[in-house]
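Troubleshooting log. The previous structure file for this entry was overwritten by mistake, so regenerating from the original sequence record. Sequence copied from the archived sheet and checked twice against the printout by T.R.
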Amino acid sequence: MRATLRQAARASVHLVLAAAMAFGSYIFITVLLITATGAAVLVGIWLVPETVLLIRRIAGAKRRLTASWTGREIPEAYAPLTGPLRQRLRTAVRDPGTLTDARWMAAYYGYAWLTVLMLPLWPVGLVVDGVWCALLGRRALVLPLIVRLAEVETAWSAALLRPSPKALLAQRVEQLTATRAGAVAAHGSELRRIERDLHDGAQARLVALSMRIGLAQRAYGADPDAARKLLADAQTQAEEALTELRHVVRGIHPPILTDRGLVGAVRALAASSGLDVTVRDDGVADGPRPPAAVEAAAYFVIAEALTNAAKYSGSERAEVVLARSRTGLSARVRDEGCGGADESAGSGLLGMRRRVAALDGTVRLTSPVGGPTVVEVDLPCVW
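Regenerated output below.
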């Protein structure tokens, strides 16, 4: 009985909200008429994209209301309404999401009145249910009717508000375009970093090495001691140039990833981070390894997150969790520092996002003031 009452009360709340939205949608007919009239005489053509934005907000509110009942999110797929008026107008008219929302709104004017008419059944059903329970010792049928009405209403709304395949495809193309732009930018930034490291590091040391060898050759006959000293300096320069080259190579693809795998490489990274880092492996080291690009992206994100934690968090401890799932690899870095990480302040998070987005992955940052800071990465891959 209590479960039935709770379910019916929840259904009633849903129907009350749906009824309020229905009244609002009926009032919105005035806005539609004004927009249609203004567009017909061309004076109010600018109202079209603004009205489409309002419809998107109304449909978004209905998606959230429906999802609160069903427990399943209804995705949105809209082209952004940006740019000059002509571009915004063209987008508003051609976007498949506009047709989806217009179809839902037209149908909603037809079935929304059911929610309004059924609201009085809740107090009636409550009385009838009490009588039935008192006389017959069983539940009545009126309260489940309220629940069924809510289920029907949400099923219709979910079916009508679900984006069309064309809209989902357009959104996916938009995402891939942005991802490609980010990947190109990340690739260009990486090339500039490598060029800078080679120019300022290994190249400068090799030039100094060449000069010392030349001086040693000229001084070898007249001053063997000076030549030997120059050759010793040249050897030092050669060793330093090799160190710089190894550093550049590690920035491209760390050899330790190839030798030890991701878990072993992360453990070595944690040991040299300057923090007390706990590394937990949830199945990554077991079974087949992820693709090299996925391993490298996870490694560099963890390295950047630990570097930021050591520099800015003020914490002495951090935790790294690597986990395997059916759809890919996930990594989480958590520190107990001061929090307040800001992506726009040059924390390296933008570089993380671009590197991960190039593999169709996602990055989530949680860093409230006072901590903790958590960086979570999901990288899809086939094991």
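The chain has a mean pLDDT of 81. Archived copy saved in two places this time.
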